[in-house]
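Lab manual, section 2.4: Encoding a predicted structure.

Procedure: take the sequence of the chain (185 residues), apply the prediction step described in section 2.3, and record the output as structure tokens. A sample record is shown.
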Amino acid sequence: MADHRFKLLRIGLTIAVSLAIWTLLAWRHFQDGVPAHHLLHNPALPRVSDWLGAVLIPSLTWCLLGLSRRRMETSESPALRPVLMGLLAGLAYGAAMSVSFFSGHESIAGYVFFSLLPLALFLPVYRPECLLGFVLGMSVVFGTVLPTIFGSIMALATFVIYRFIGLPLQRLVGLRDGQGLRGAE
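Recorded output:
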């Protein structure tokens, strides 16, 4: 049952984000034109057009949800809820960064971005659904390429922190045994 619901989620979300990004790009095309963003917000670096998002967002959605499905299949208790929670948390995180940057509070956006590093000591924020939510939350403001690049780099960094620092630290303190969280039955 969970597998069928996940297939529906994967197909439905891919169709929904495809329609959303294509509608946004069409609207921008007929308004002021589709913007392009400089890498690292530096005019000396090349510009990347938002048109790339027409292909990147649907394929990223399909592939990252496929990775989440593979993880669910190998899990002892495959449930859709943790995937949805990770997706929504990443979406909220990306939207918070976008709003703080767009409203002129670049330093707050930086703090929010780098606060993922200590958060990775306790939570697996590197998961594909978190990355997908993060990219979707930032794609309206920053386009799709920059959030994908920075989100992927941050996912790699948080994976290393969680696996090699966070989990051993949790075992040392007694929060986690060899199988999972203690007291989470």
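Check your result against the sample. Residues 2-30 form the longest helix (29 residues).
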